[in-house]
Write a structure and sequence with these properties.
By secondary structure, the chain is mostly helical. The protein has one domain (about 1-75). Helices cover about 75% and strands about 0% of the residues. It has helices at about 1-60, 65-75. The mean pLDDT is about 95.
Length: about 90
């Protein structure tokens, strides 16, 4: 009978120890994943700010006045005169 009690106590003790190690490991994983999520959210915010900045830059670069000025200065383009315009109609 004594041997059964010792074996039962040892089994319960090992079970409690395994449970404690499992809790510690689960806490470790939870902290690791929370940190990863926070890092991903921070990266998302940085990318969102960069996207907004690039949209503003694109809008500034594509402004009609800027494109017109570049076409006239860099490419020496001019608007066609009235005699150079041909109207094409669909039959």
């Amino acid at each position: 009978m004594n041997r059964v009690l010792v074996l039962t106590a040892l089994t319960l003790w090992l079970g409690a120890l395994a449970s404690a190690v499992g809790v510690v490991y689960a806490e470790h994983l939870e902290r690791k994943y929370v940190f990863a999520v926070e890092k991903a959210v921070q990266h998302y915010d940085e990318l969102d700010i960069e996207r907004e900045r690039l949209q503003l830059e694109e809008a500034a670069l594509a402004a009609h006045g800027r494109v017109d000025a570049l076409a006239r200065t860099r490419l020496q383009m001019v608007a066609p005169g009235a005699g150079n315009i041909i109207l094409v109609t669909q039959p």
